[in-house]
Amino acid sequence: MREKRVIIPSWPLLAILFTLLVLWGAFLSSPFGKVTTIEVSGTHDLDATTLVKDMNIKPGISVVDLWLKEKSIESNVEASSPQVLAADFSYTKNIGWWLKVDEAKVLALWQNGDSYLPILKNGQTLEAVDPNEAPILPILITPNDWHANKIFLESLNNLDDAVRTNIVSMTLAEDSDEVSLTMSDRQVVIGISDTIMVKMADYPAMKKEIGNKEGILYLDEGAYFKESDQNETVPVTQDN
């Protein structure tokens, strides 16, 4: 029969372990062991304070409890709104507890009959809103199903807000990929759905070159302007 050696902790070692446990308990019960602030980033339309409430964190929760609930907290935030595509909750040395949100901002309002539905960058729509009370957004007018046009939505999402919010309406042709834009300065812009929003990044510079002339800005092949009372088109500088 083999003998087993059993090591019995010495009293000094037990005292050290007991002391550490006491100190750890004191830390958790102190203000230093409680979570007091959470940094939120990545939001556009959503309110950061509301998102923190949706995390369903009890006041005075300990650092350890919060760490153990990271995944459930992320699930709570993702379920709080269709605009939350993903949530990442973690602790970083420089920032502390940090909630990073991938929010699908509202890009436009789709005019569907008498209803106006907010459109997100992933093609999802929210409940109908009153266009008079909604934020300033382009109105999408189309007889076709636009959901599959991911390139159009992605480029619209990447377009600078200063340009996008100056688009009054976007009309998609029924039998082609042509898109017609009406701007807040009454300028009409015509292009194709896959590239028009990419080229619209240079709209401020192109409009400055056009000045007060009335006519149509074409962005299908290159960029050129046709004045209302002229037959010829004039190239317009653009970098895309």
Automatic annotation (TrEMBL):
Cell division recorded as keyword: yes
Entry GO terms, CC: plasma membrane
Record key words, sorted: Cell cycle, Cell division, Cell membrane, Membrane, Transmembrane, Transmembrane helix
Domain named Cell division protein FtsQ/DivIB C-terminal: residues: 108-220
Domain of life: Bacteria
InterPro entries tied to this protein: Cell_div_FtsQ/DivIB_C, FtsQ_DivIB
GO biological process, alphabetically ordered: cell division
Protein name (record): Cell division protein FtsQ/DivIB C-terminal domain-containing protein
